[in-house]
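User: Quick sanity check before I run a bigger batch. Here is a single chain. Can you write out its predicted 3D structure?
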Amino acid sequence: MRQPVPKSKTPPSAQVETYLAALPADTRRHVQELRDAIRAAAPGAVESFGYGMPAFSLDGKPFVWYGAWKHHSSFYPLSQATTHALASELEGYDISGKGTIRFRLDQPLPTALVEAARQSGS
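Assistant: Done. Predicted structure follows.
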């Protein structure tokens, strides 16, 4: 029988800050820009932390997660409907079938795309 995972007593904002602080400086700047773009796109979203990465909840429900990897940052979940609605804007980005869009760390973050994903119902 699986044991429940204990909830962290650390506030989500502190968990996010710890996550960001552990990143290399260039990666941290890129992910912070993604974090800021999500906040701008969904001003009512509440910062949270889940699945080992930063996230936002909206209207009491998980909204999006984002994270840093070796060569990219990721933004998820991106729904099938959003992927379809933004097909032309997503050209040139690596997208997984499970709703992840990857932004290369060596390229500018397309903040308008984050807003468009929010508008499309990501």
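Residues 25-41 form the longest helix (17 residues).

User: Great, the batch can go ahead then.
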